[in-house]
Design a protein that fits this description.
This protein is α/β, with parallel strands linked by helices. Strands 1, 2, 3, 4, 5, 6, 7 and 8 form an eight-stranded mixed beta sheet that branches. The protein is globular and about 55 Å long.
């Protein structure tokens, strides 16, 4: 019998636990079974999807890109490798940035990739028009004040620059209080209805280029992640404890349920900052 969704309100430790033990053998084994390539990720992105995002951002040599909430830096490094661009990754978790810096060193990318501990819920510590692209995967839902956030991303983009972000909790069906509580058990969450992100992008000064439904990826990755962890319960309990293990399993099961039933959906939003002559 599979784990059932958790019913308590205690916050589940996903990110600090993940980044603090990112090199532990069972964690590595779980990622390898869950994803097409281990990028150190703790989200719904696969390598194939990441490469699609890099192409959509139209990055090339000489361009400068920012990844907001970069985690362990796997996607940031691949962005630099694939596009030949200079990339900056920021994240609020110090352990994630430490892992990202190590990864960049292992890939010999220190000259083109850098990482900083930054609270992305506040204005970014970069001058206006600093980047050709801004990317944020499955993290915008953890940041408050979305209109202010998008306006700040617009500020740091150069005219003609592109923004791509994914929102994995767009409300597209009925969701109960208990389901919302379980789905948001790992920290701050901002749920928005379908169409809200498009409206906020326009209000922020962006031109919306494409909106793509990626909900199937959430259903697939969460199931694989849940099952890969279930097969390594003994090893993971030694790292996380019984309560931590069961809490994360319940979270993943709820993610799978709501995504597979398309009551919470994941969308990718591609937008651009107009050139001066387009304003």
């Amino acid at each position: 019998m599979r784990d059932s969704p958790m019913s308590n309100e205690k916050e589940v430790d996903l990110y600090d636990g993940h980044y603090g033990r990112i090199g532990a053998d069972p964690q590595v084994a779980v990622r390898r079974e869950t994803y097409d390539e281990d990028l150190g990720q703790s989200s719904w992105i696969t390598l194939a999807e990441a490469l699609q995002f890099v192409r959509a951002l139209e990055l090339g040599p000489g361009d400068r890109a920012l990844e907001v909430a970069c985690g362990a830096g796997g996607v940031t490094c691949r962005m630099a490798l694939e596009a030949g661009a200079t990339c900056v990754g920021v994240d609020i978790h110090a352990a994630a940035i430490e892992a990202a810096i190590r990864r960049a060193g292992e890939k010999d990318l220190q000259s083109r990739v850098s990482f900083q501990v930054v609270d992305a819920s506040r204005p970014l510590p970069f001058p206006d028009a600093s980047f050709d692209a801004v990317f944020c995967n499955d993290a915008i839902n953890h940041l408050p004040r979305r209109l202010d956030l998008l306006r700040d991303w617009h500020r740091v983009l150069r005219p003609g620059g592109r923004l791509l972000f994914t929102d994995p909790i767009v409300v597209t069906g009925p969701v109960t209080k208990e389901e919302i509580r379980a789905r948001s058990s790992i920290g701050f969450y901002l749920f928005t209805p379908a169409g809200c992100n498009e409206d906020l992008l326009v209000q922020s000064g962006f031109v919306v280029r494409e909106v793509r439904d990626l909900t199937d990826a959430v259903a697939s990755v969460s199931r694989k992640w849940h099952d890969a962890r279930a097969g390594r319960r003994v090893e993971l309990v030694k790292l996380e404890g019984d309560e931590g293990f069961d809490g994360l399993q319940g979270f993943l099961w709820m993610v799978r349920t709501l995504a597979s039933e398309r009551r919470l959906s994941r969308y990718a939003y591609l937008a651009s900052k107009p050139q001066a002559f387009e304003v």
